[in-house]
Amino acid sequence: MNIFRLAGDMTHLISVLVLLLKIYATKSCSGISLKTQELYAMVFLARYLDLFSDFISLYNTVMKLVFIGSSLAIVWCMRYHRVVRRSYDRELDTFRYWILVGACFTLALVLHEKFSFQEVFWAFSIYLEAVAILPQLVLLQRSGNVDNLTGQYVFFLGAYRAFYILNWIYRYLTEPRFTRWISCVSGLVQTALYADFFYYYFISWKNNAKLQLPA
Amino acid sequence: KDHESDHDEL
Prior knowledge:
Radius of gyration of chain A: 17 Å
Distance between the termini of chain A: 41 Å
Helix content of chain A: 55-70%
Number of helices of chain B: 0
Mean pLDDT of chain B: 68
Membrane topology (chain A): Multi-pass membrane protein
Subcellular location (chain A): Endoplasmic reticulum membrane
Organism (chain A): Nicotiana attenuata
Transmembrane segments (chain A): 55-76, 97-115, 121-141, 153-173, 179-202
Shape of chain A: globular
Structural class of chain B: little secondary structure
InterPro entries (chain A): ER_ret_rcpt
Shape of chain B: elongated
Radius of gyration of chain B: 7 Å
Number of helices of chain A: 9
Number of strands of chain B: 0
Oligomer: heterodimer
């Protein structure tokens, strides 16, 4: 564990807490893409298949349970909670994400570290996470102004993988045989997808104005 | 452990 990875995990945890806070405090999920939440639930379920077979550390296990539990709870809330579900922007959140799921799974069948059930699903989860934010970014552009908590949620979600990139650089420089090309390339693509969001987020912060993404 | 893919990251 290094400071970059810890910062990344904490930033990821903060993004989840901010989203839970938004939904719990405002009893509303307006501006949140259910599709992105469902994609993230798939990402965690596919990535943490080794949850019970490979014990790495208490921290690792606890964080996996937190990410799986929170993503499933948010999907449940947005679908079935009688108050929250009314504020879901159903007609704006129309990204056909099964194309993404199919493409990522096909890529994982071709490109993986080892051809085993667990490894293919692990590579699938890495590719899927890289594009999982797309429905959310599309929804932000369509829904015009973005409330603060939603903007902060997306910001922290994008920042966490940027910390992971620093972690991979650090591990590459300090550990002799460290190569994680699948994670690194996907992580770069994932962070690049947030580039324009980060730009408009910085502008809104600098001008102390509402976050506005151009339609 | 070496045959296992060491996915020690989240």
